[in-house]
Amino acid sequence: MNAILPDVSLSETATLPAALDWVGMQGIDLPIRLAEREANGPWPASADIQVDLPSATAKGIHMSRLYQLLDRLVAPLTPERLRSLLADMITSHRSCDSRAARLRLDFALLVRRPALVTPGLSGWKRYPVRLDASLINGVFQLSARVEITYSSTCPCSASLSRQLIERAFLDDHGHDDSLSPATVATWLRQHASLATPHSQRSLARVSIDLLPTAPTLDLLPLIDRCETALSTPVQTAVKRADEQAFAALNGSNLMFVEDAARRLLLALRDSYRNLNIHVRHLESLHPHDAAAWAGTKKG
After folding, report:
1. At CB < 8 A and 24+ separation, what contacts does 61-66 make?
2. Phi–psi pair at 236, nearest 5 degrees
3. Angle of helix 79-91 versus helix 63-71 axis, rounded to 10
4. Which of 9, 46, 53, 120 could pair with 60 in a Cys bridge, judged by C-beta atoms 3.0 to 4.6 Å apart?
5. 261-289 as b/e, with b when 16 or more CB fall inside 10 Å?
6. Which pLDDT does position 5 carry in this prediction?
7. How many CA atoms, within 13 angstroms, populate the side-chain half-sphere of residue 55?
């Protein structure tokens, strides 16, 4: 084990000289922690890590150096720690003339969410997150993408359902001028669901640029603002009272995919840089999805 082992990345040159944009590894498993108190982890993550290879004759980069640097990422993630990691990656590849490094982290936050109505009832909700960090020619950039699952009820379908219920009521009682409230209530209890609007689980992906000088990543405040804007985030543990409250939320927040995108845009555009929104309603009426995009220019 004391013998000097060959290292062809140093002793040989490329047989086909050419500079490469990025070289590294993808899908590295590791645990990460966040600096946020409510969701510090550790969370299982998958990392992609690369440096550029401007040296046309360099045989290859040093993969193990990148892996070891990433493995040191045990302290809670902050923008500054990510910038420092990228700088160390570049330094470790001076022999390859590297001037740029990038890192992508995919993980999911598990956050305990209370039920809508029932006291003391709560459950865990999963929020996928993607972080992209790069250091190129001394410029550090950091962005985050979060995914929020919510419910959407179609306004058109709701209107069509109400029309059918109206027609049915008139067919049964259109000539009765002496209806009591109790009679109407009884009819509604028996027939108000003869037509129901279609609802579906829906997905919002929201991407923003993070401030390089921020003390934390502040992912939970972003998620909370998205859920508040949409008003119908999917629930975890529920009892009948919570299910009824959720039905009321859906009924008072009818949404086309355009409505959902606009809600998020108006709620976020004044607070976040380089905002990008993609919403999908996984239609129960169609075998395809409805989708919308919105965002702001970088600045």
Report:
1. 61/9, 61/23, 61/24, 61/93, 61/96, 61/98, 62/9, 62/92, 62/93, 62/96, 63/24, 63/25, 65/89, 65/92, 65/93, 66/24, 66/25, 66/92
2. -105, -105
3. 160
4. 9
5. bbbbbebbeeebeebbbbbbbebeeeeee
6. 63
7. 19
> Which of 83, 59, 37, 164 is CA-nearest to residue 91?
83
pLDDT of residue 2: 59
How many residues are there in the chain?
299
Question: What tens digit of pLDDT does each residue of 49-82 get?
Answer: 999 999 888 888 999 999 999 988 888 999 999 9
pTM of the model: 0.89
Question: Apex CA 291: angle with CA 285 and CA 295, to 5°?
Answer: 155
* Residue 270 in tokens: 């004044």
User: 196-209, pLDDT tens digit by residue?
Assistant: 899 999 999 999 99
On whether the CB atoms of residues 208 and 222 are closer than 8 A, the answer is yes
